[in-house]
Design a protein that fits this description.
Blueprint: H1 12-24, E1 27-28, H2 30-35, E2 45-46, E3 61-71, E4 76-78, E5 86-93, E6 98-105, H3 107-121, E7 125-128, E8 133-137, H4 139-153, H5 166-169, H6 173-187
Parallel strand pairs: 3-7
Antiparallel strand pairs: 1-2, 3-4, 3-5, 5-6, 7-8
Length: 188
């Protein structure tokens, strides 16, 4: 019989938190809630995310993934960076055992959105596009993985046609910088 990790066991406080969060119809930080002596306060509440169905809360998900996506005439699909119209954050739903949309973000909002999700949940983040995936990593480590991919994909600076701004114009550079800035904002 497979063992259940402690973080996946429904404790009384986690169940109570989930019930209170559903009543408030808000995403709640379990860390803030428990640190505050299990009282639901304004600091523990976050804004509503544009992809969550009513009654679904952050504690219903056990991990998150960010992907570049494009609109194919009414159908949204994951694509390669550079082809994307916006970024989508998906969560792995604990009970449904499937990835579900949590939030769609424009480029200037994606770093803050991911940092807030991680801050609220403590969960790991994945990145996935059509050709690459980085699974279950901490947000600062995702910044490093994206930086390495950018360096791997730009031409050698001594090669013909190489430009000094190749790294800056890579389609993942803005995502990396947005995440890095959100992390630095929280460290300050």
């Amino acid at each position: 019989m497979p063992q259940i990790a402690d973080r996946d066991r429904p404790t009384a406080s986690r169940l109570e938190l989930r019930e209170k969060a559903q009543v408030k119809a808000k995403w709640v930080s379990a860390v803030q809630y428990l640190a505050a002596g299990q009282r639901l306060d304004d600091a523990a509440l976050a804004h509503d995310w544009n992809g969550l169905p009513s009654g679904t809360i952050i504690l219903d998900f056990t991990g998150f993934r960010v992907s570049p996506v494009r609109d194919m005439g009414g159908s949204i699909e994951v694509c390669d960076p550079g082809e994307h119209a916006f970024w989508s954050v998906y969560g792995f739903h604990r009970e449904a055992q499937e990835w579900q949309i949590v939030h769609d973000a424009l480029s200037d909002d994606i770093g803050e959105s991911l940092a807030r999700i991680v801050e609220l949940t403590g969960e790991l983040v994945e990145y996935r596009d059509l050709s690459h995936a980085y699974a279950n990593t901490r947000l600062p480590d995702l910044v490093d993985l994206l930086a390495q991919r950018i360096l791997d994909e730009i031409p050698d600076q001594d090669a013909a046609g190489a430009r000094a701004d190749d790294a800056d114009t890579h389609p993942l550079s803005y995502l990396r910088e947005q995440i890095r800035a959100a992390i630095e904002k929280r460290r300050a």
